[in-house]
Design goal:
13 helices, alpha/beta, binds 5-hydroxymethyl-3,4-dihydroxypiperidine, globular, TIM Barrel, 436 residues
Length: 436
């Protein structure tokens, strides 16, 4: 099976960490057993989610986690990246994560919790600096409870998307439309990251990373206006979130839009991490503003931004409309190595995956096969890559797309909650077996 999509996948270095990812809000359900998050508030509003759904039940992982741990064990992954729900911890229910971590350890699957994956407790706000301190306090509570069994930690998931989609464009929770005035939200999350690293270190943690989303930015043409627009976008998506952590400075032109005193925080933001997590899905083609509305991953962009998003033609697209560009992963990682040099710690691909329907999901197999090979080319080019996590174990609540997009290796019937492994699950299991 591992050879279906084009010969055996080349061998990755010994100790390479193979895993799958999920997040709390997208799979747990049991919303009645925790405090509300900004996503509960957001989805209660009309027209926010494509199919009108909410994550109140989702995959009901909260009650079915044993079945899901058995699926992980059957798949043969060494690690499982999930997220801890801050609202659930605030309601006093750390017991759920205790049970999950115990069951994972018993099954020989390493728990890799993400401490924030967009489900901010309702009432907190990333525009407020104080939210970063509240986050560090919560991280300390979680580390105190789980740190005897959890050794690998992720502070934040994709602060770029949470800033852009949630606070600049308003298509994700909390639904703010601040455009470039959303930049303080980015700074406060990065501050939260640095404070969380310190809190985890205080509990003895030695294996800490972040899951940042990155992708190559392709200028629409060589015209200076297109190149300048692409550089601006690249700064927003890539450098804004990597430079402070890895170089201890913000990219040129950003500081003026940040809260006063942001530069004084850089020492905290640059608190060293043990590895750097990259979520990769696709490149973006960017050109000069065209005056009209343009789209961003299916989301209409307001006029007035200093760039426009252009279509990537001649590529297959997934069900979510994202182009399939495996070599973008090789290019991204080699460009990171070139830009950050010795400052770049070992890299882990903390998410990569695609939305396709059906149980015999040959498109997903081809996608994953292509991207794993592209990752191997980055290894051959000298990038120190230590792990790869598929997004996602289960079909789940895909944010503003509701249940219309299926990213899982395992199909979930959202009426009965029955889990059915797809062809891609069997294929990935064989890949893992072949990798030893
Ligand atoms: O489902 C999301 C995940 O929560 C964050 N990264 C991208 C995935 C697919 O859109």
């Amino acid at each position: 099976m591992a050879t279906d999509a084009g010969g055996p996948i080349p061998r990755f270095p010994a100790g390479f960490l193979w895993g799958v990812s999920t997040s709390a809000h997208q799979i747990e359900g049991a919303a009645d057993r925790r405090e509300p998050s900004v996503w509960d508030v957001f989805t209660a509003g009309p027209g926010r989610v494509r199919d009108g759904s909410t994550a109140a039940v989702a995959c009901d992982h909260y009650h079915r986690h044993r079945e899901d741990v058995a699926l992980l064990a059957g798949l043969g992954v060494r690690a499982y990246r999930f997220s801890v729900s801050w609202p659930r911890v605030r309601s006093g229910d750390l017991g759920f994560y205790d049970r999950l971590v115990d069951d994972l350890c018993a099954a020989g699957v390493r728990p890799v919790p993400t401490l924030f994956h967009w489900d901010l407790p309702a009432g907190l706000d990333w525009r407020q600096r104080d939210t970063a301190s509240r986050f560090a306090e919560y991280v300390s509570v979680v580390a105190g409870r789980l740190g005897d069994r959890v050794t690998k930690w992720i502070t934040l998931n994709e602060p770029a998307e949470h800033t852009l989609l949630g606070h600049a464009l308003g298509v994700h929770a909390p639904g703010e439309r601040l455009l470039l005035d959303a930049l303080p939200v980015a700074h406060h999350q990065l501050l939260a990251h640095g404070l969380a690293v310190r809190a985890l270190r205080a509990h003895g943690a030695t294996d800490i990373g972040i899951a940042n989303s990155h992708g190559p930015t392709w200028p629409a043409s060589r015209e200076p206006a297109d190149v300048a627009a692409a550089e601006f976008y690249d700064t927003l998506l890539n450098r804004l979130f990597a430079d402070p952590l890895l170089l201890g400075r913000y990219p040129d032109g950003i500081v003026a839009s940040l809260p006063g005193g942001a530069e004084a925080d850089l020492e905290v933001l640059a608190e060293p991490v043990d590895w750097y997590g990259v979520n990769y899905y696709a490149p973006t083609r960017i050109g000069a503003p065209r005056g009209g509305r343009t789209g961003f991953g299916g989301v209409p962009l307001p006029a007035g931004l200093p760039f426009s998003v252009r279509e990537i033609e001649d590529r297959p697209v997934t069900d979510s409309g994202w182009p399939v560009v495996p070599e973008g992963l090789t290019d991204l990682l080699t460009a990171f190595r070139d830009r950050y040099g010795d400052r770049l710690p070992p890299v882990v691909v903390t998410e990569n995956g695609c939305s396709y329907g059906g149980l015999d999901d040959q498109d997903r197999i081809a996608y994953l096969d292509g991207h794993i090979r592209a990752l191997h080319r980055a290894v051959e080019a000298g990038v120190d890559v230590r792990g790869y996590f598929v997004w996602s174990l289960l079909d789940n609540f895909e944010w503003a797309q509701g249940y219309t997009q299926r990213f899982g290796l395992v199909h979930v019937d959202f009426e009965t909650l029955e889990r059915t492994p797809k062809a891609s699950y069997a294929w990935f299991r064989e890949v893992l077996r072949a990798q030893g």
